[in-house]
Fold this sequence. Notes:
- By secondary structure, this protein is an alpha+beta fold.
- It has five domains: 2-121, Orthogonal Bundle (Transcription Factor, Stat-4); 140-293, STAT transcription factor, all-alpha domain (Glutathione S-transferase Yfyf (Class Pi), Chain A, domain 2), CATH 1.20.1050.20; 299-452, STAT transcription factor, DNA-binding domain (Immunoglobulin-like, Sandwich); 464-645 and 768-787, Recoverin, domain 1 (Orthogonal Bundle), CATH 1.10.238; 651-765, no CATH class.
- Strands 14, 15, 16, 17, 18 and 19 form a six-stranded mixed beta sheet that branches. Strands 1, 3, 5, 7 and 8 form a five-stranded antiparallel beta sheet that branches.
- α1 (2-11) packs across α7, α5 packs antiparallel against α6 (80-92) and α10 (254-277) runs antiparallel to α11 (282-298).
Amino acid sequence: xxxxxxxxxxxxxxxxxxxxxxxxxxxxxxxxxxxxxxxxxxxxxxxxxxxxxxxxxxxxxxxxxxxxxxxxxxxxxxxxxxxxxxxxxxxxxxxxxxxxxxxxxxxxxxxxxxxxxxxxxxxxxxxxxxxxxxxxxxxxxxxxxxxxxxxxxxxxxxxxxxxxxxxxxxxxxxxxxxxxxxxxxxxxxxxxxxxxxxxxxxxxxxxxxxxxxxxxxxxxxxxxxxxxxxxxxxxxxxxxxxxxxxxxxxxxxxxxxxxxxxxxxxxxxxxxxxxxxxxxxxxxxxxxxxxxxxxxxxxxxxxxxxxxxxxxxxxxxxxxxxxxxxxxxxxxxxxxxxxxxxxxxxxxxxxxxxxxxxxxxxxxxxxxxxxxxxxxxxxxxxxxxxxxxxxxxxxxxxxxxxxxxxxxxxxxxxxxxxxxxxxxxxxxxxxxxxxxxxxxxxxxxxxxxxxxxxxxxxxxxxxxxxxxxxxxxxxxxxxxxxxxxxxxxxxxxxxxxxxxxxxxxxxxxxxxxxxxxxxxxxxxxxxxxxxxxxxxxxxxxxxxxxxxxxxxxxxxxxxxxxxxxxxxxxxxxxxxxxxxxxxxxxxxxxxxxxxxxxxxxxxxxxxxxxxxxxxxxxxxxxxxxxxxxxxxxxxxxxxxxxxxxxxxxxxxxxxxxxxxxxxxxxxxxxxxxxxxxxxxxxxxxxxxxxxxxxxxxxxxxxxxxxxxxxxxxxxxxxxxxxxxxxxxxxxxxxxxxxxxxxxxxxxxxxxxxxxxxxxxxxxxxxxxxxxxxxxxxxxxxxxxxxx
Length: 787
């Protein structure tokens, strides 16, 4: 509290930019520092560091405590504005649930910066920040200096021992001469030599003691350095595991290889020093041998993981790297072997699995050294799972929930070691499928595993439930990485996704701490839908990745929003105001919601039939928006031709001898020709530029198939059309469903009426129907919007 008291006085003199930099409003607003300052300053934040992954659990505990204290403070606050602000901040802090260690390090750095600012401002009021005294260096460079010092002591001892041997020989020779001749005059010289001998013996003994002490220190330091190295290597593997959900990952292993080779070299030097001493040092020898074995066995790394969803009878690859590749005994080829193991076998590693659960082909590769990259790798280029043996499933567990792994093993001879070392390493968990239809559910299993597993878990245990804040953080990371965008999901998106996964409609409810189960994520279908939450969300990602990346990145797509909230924000907007939202009822669809007038004089929000990947393959979203005259301004009030102009396609030039044909998107008409309003939302139709022309549609939305000028207008036979076509004879002329336009031909000439089965125009009345605005609880909506 004392630090914050000084800091709060200093804040009045600081520029706003400095304050916002010190207390980022989006992650750690100044209100958090103010209201729980006493608790913050009572914790030991200096202990945290990003590389210490073992501190994750403690950091998560502190984060949970901070959120809880903030919520309690909010409840006690009599000021309604401050109360709501604190509740909102506590909910936003939930995004750190999956990155609690980063939260702890952030608080540590904020406190450090505060102390620096206070110290600069007034040294007498508060002593300047003194960084904690660093622990003794545990890096290998420091160890190298210690070993060099040890080697220098040995050399000095060797020189002194030679001098001592020489002086002892002179002493004994001179003493013998004087005794033989019976001379008394040499006593002084003999005494002098004796003193020199004693001094040399003392120096040798002192160096011997120092040598032993330094050798002990070197072994201790090597053990600490190797321990820190293994922790960082483990953190690298963990980051690789987390990269499946879109978290950042640096795959460069070169620094690890350099450190690993240094540790091996230092171990060899210390073993040599013990050998040169010529005495038995059993304890130190055992410790060095154990360190050597652990280092050699830990240096096998799956550099390029196999795909985490593998289809049987399909090729896949993986690359295994050995960090001590340059230390492999020359002239001896090392063969790595891969085999597939199940979850039970992964829990009992140590010996070769006794039972084969799957047949792998092309499952062996040689460790080969690449001179250019200085790496030693075994690349499995064409592995394939020929067959798989599954375990007995429990209850409703499906095959896409069963996890396996690839086990890589070899015997590696190391230069300077008498016997080869047996080493092994398992891949990240994989799900084996037999058909492409299982891919989506298998990916869900992998996402859940990568997002919510613990670093030191028993393979491959995962929690059955996680908090919504952690789940949303995962969805956000996965979405932004898949779409390759910096534009993240916002609070409104988060709230709608929570409503969807929990099947809730209350806009004012706080979902932050609610628990999401695996069943809710991808086992139980959503109410009234034939698909699960993940299947629906994954469809949105695929559509966005392929067709909507630029629109989303520029903030032109509202995205995830419920219809109640939709009515709230479009309420009282001018006719033609529209926004883009992902379809709630269709996998991988985006729809346009816009305001239009009713014949009775009121307004209504219309939801257009969703565009899917097939539709956007034919004609881009930008061109469709340009086509539709009924929409004019993107919410809240941006003229559509200004914000979407860059996405419009250019009109194709005339091609000699042909009349160009274009494709347009229009709002459907009913049979009387009036615009569909009232209870019928509009249906979008694809029409050619002229009612008498024929549009030839392909998967390329930019292609335009010309028409021969000699062809009689409007006359074409079915045999001239590759693919199929359909027409609903009861539908008004020129009205065609978008589903009929995916790679097929549609006849748009009203004079042509072939005797064919009627086509199917999708019903405009679906779950995308608008609710009656008068039935919406606007008090609840307004409360949500204020939040």
